[in-house]
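wait is this the right file?? whatever heres the structure
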């Protein structure tokens, strides 16, 4: 894989998709439909998906593509593929909370190795460079030229005073019970894959997810966190979270800085 080309293409497509999303976000009203699993989908999901999938197929025709919005791609098999969630955090989008992201990632041998997470309403852009190091880009987000980037890295976690981030839309008692096992200094809520990025930048130490997610929800954020020195592990046995699973469904997981002393499930 030509990682320089990949990063350039993923970044540009995320920005183009973000433009389409924000056009629809700015409208007074937009249609919300329900998918077969009762999760919501909007015109923004579909418009962003069209931009990204067309661009990825043109640039990387020989790499399998899995995207949330195209059910036929969910039959893909193998451990190396591009994976897309064109609008992660649809509920945040619908409620106009801004915590939604464009997620594009490359999975190689079951591991997300490169990814981009773009939050257009918050003007935050995180991605892995060709060398695998994760960065946050600041500036005007020129589609053809990467602006000023800052390497990001996870915190040196203080287990006596942890910063925890949890889901804004999917918080439950089981999550709170697990968090209560830790010495928590402060907690914050965030939507979508931004939670991975907050751990990657050291703004949080720990993100437990005790709920249903799919690989397209997590791959890009997982790649960014790995490139910042963090890890994503299964909740039950703390083994690394792997990708290319049948049906692309994830088990419960924990994203964390390596200094966090993980508690048993």
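ok assuming it is, sequence goes like this
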């Amino acid at each position: 894989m030509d990682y320089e080309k990949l990063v350039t293409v993923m970044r540009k497509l995320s920005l183009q998709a973000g433009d389409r999303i924000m056009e629809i976000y700015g409208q007074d009203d937009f249609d919300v439909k329900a998918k077969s699993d009762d999760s919501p989908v909007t015109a923004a999901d579909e418009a962003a998906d069209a931009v990204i999938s067309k661009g990825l197929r043109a640039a990387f025709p020989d790499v399998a593509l899995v995207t949330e919005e195209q059910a036929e791609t969910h039959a893909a098999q193998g451990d190396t593929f591009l994976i897309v969630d064109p609008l992660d955090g649809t509920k945040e989008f619908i409620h106009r909370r801004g915590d939604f992201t464009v997620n594009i990632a490359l999975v190689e041998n079951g591991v997300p190795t490169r990814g981009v997470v773009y939050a257009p309403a918050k003007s935050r852009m995180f991605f892995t460079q060709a060398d695998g190091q994760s960065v946050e880009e600041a500036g005007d987000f020129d589609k053809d030229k990467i602006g000023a980037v800052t390497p990001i890295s996870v915190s040196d976690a203080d287990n006596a005073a942890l910063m925890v981030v949890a889901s804004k839309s999917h918080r439950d008692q089981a999550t709170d019970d697990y968090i209560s096992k830790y010495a928590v200094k402060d907690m914050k809520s965030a939507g979508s894959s931004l939670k991975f990025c907050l751990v990657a930048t050291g703004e949080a130490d720990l993100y437990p997810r005790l709920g249903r997610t799919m690989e397209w929800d997590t791959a890009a954020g997982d790649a960014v966190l790995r490139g910042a020195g963090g890890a994503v592990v299964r909740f039950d046995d703390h083994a690394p979270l792997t990708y290319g699973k049948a049906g692309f469904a994830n088990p419960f997981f924990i994203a964390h800085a390596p200094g966090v002393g993980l508690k048993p499930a």
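Residues 3-25 form the longest helix (23 residues). so i think its the right one actually
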